[in-house]
Specification:
29% of the residues lie in helices and 21% in strands. With 278 residues, it is α/β, with parallel strands linked by helices. It has an eight-stranded parallel β-barrel. A two-stranded antiparallel ribbon has the order 5-6. It is globular, with a radius of gyration of 19 Å. The two termini are 25 Å apart.
């Protein structure tokens, strides 16, 4: 439960009352293979429980993988039929994954840049609704690195993400989700110009409940801004308490799971316990 001090802080910064449960959607990192072989598969439980207009993040292989997979095609069709949107995982490594094609093969290796991954998703899964940019860097003054042959090109992180947005929009994908994992202590308000939805906190239960979002995250008097804010909470033992806190903090998108682990593949490889018990 949000304590009185936090509630006063939230209400003082934002006059909008907490969201109702029915107003929230899910942002689901579905880092498990879509299985249609039986009714109680993880994928089936997820689509049966996800709220309408939720975002489902697929991650074939830390990105789009090496080719079109018919089961992901079926999964995207299944989600669309249920009013759910599917977006594709792309790892940016804090802005150091090259944005455009490089000549890294000259150094004996081949780097999949962001544009290549966008194009792969678009080519293999044309019904997808956008991309999920993991490990987003919010330090606008930081220098993102793009390796081109034997020399290095530098650009600011803000310019890097502006370039990604331009490439995504060019390909008609509509939804861009950015995940810096934690915005505490940062001045990342510029990020709302670069993405449609920003994951302002990805954390375990205890850290999440004691966390206070920075002022620039709040929706002010614009209730629609809540749908630009997402929270991902793992290792949860009291789902009701965490859900209440997410609504008080105006998270239009939320995902709450009991899963634990040290890597994304462990944390997001199963649906929540409450969904498994249904």
């Amino acid at each position: 439960m949000v304590d009185s001090g936090q509630r006063e802080r939230l209400q003082g910064a934002d006059p909008i009352p907490p969201l109702a449960e029915t107003e929230q959607r899910n942002l689901i990192p579905a880092f498990f293979y879509p299985d249609f072989t039986h009714q109680n598969s993880r994928w089936q439980r997820m689509v049966d429980n996800a709220r309408p207009d939720s975002l489902i993040v697929i991650n074939p292989n830390s990105g789009p993988g090496s080719g079109r997979d018919v089961n992901y095609v079926h999964a995207i069709d299944d989600c669309r039929a249920r009013g759910l949107k599917v977006i594709g995982y792309i790892r940016t490594r804090r802005g150091t994954v090259p944005l455009r094609p490089t000549y890294a093969w000259m150094l004996g290796r081949r780097t999949k840049n962001v544009v290549e991954q966008i194009d792969a998703y678009r080519s293999w899964y044309p019904k997808m609704a956008g991309v999920f940019l993991d490990e987003m860097n919010l330090d606008a003054q930081d220098r993102a690195v793009e390796r081109r042959g034997f020399f290095t090109h530098y650009t600011t992180v803000e310019q890097y993400h502006a370039g990604i947005k331009a490439e995504v929009r060019k390909r008609t994908q509509q939804t861009i989700v950015g995940n810096p994992r934690d915005v505490s202590g940062s001045h990342g308000d510029w990020a709302f110009d670069a993405v449609d939805v920003l994951v302002v906190q990805e954390a375990g239960e205890s850290r999440y409940l004691s966390w206070t979002p920075p002022d620039w995250v709040y929706p002010g008097t614009n209730r629609a801004h809540a749908y630009r804010i997402a929270h991902l909470v793992h290792g949860v033992t009291n789902e009701r308490e965490v859900a209440e806190a997410s609504r008080a903090r105006h998270a239009g998108y939320v995902y709450i799971t009991d899963e634990t682990g040290s890597s994304p593949d462990q944390l997001w490889n199963e649906v929540p316990r409450s969904w498994r018990l249904k």
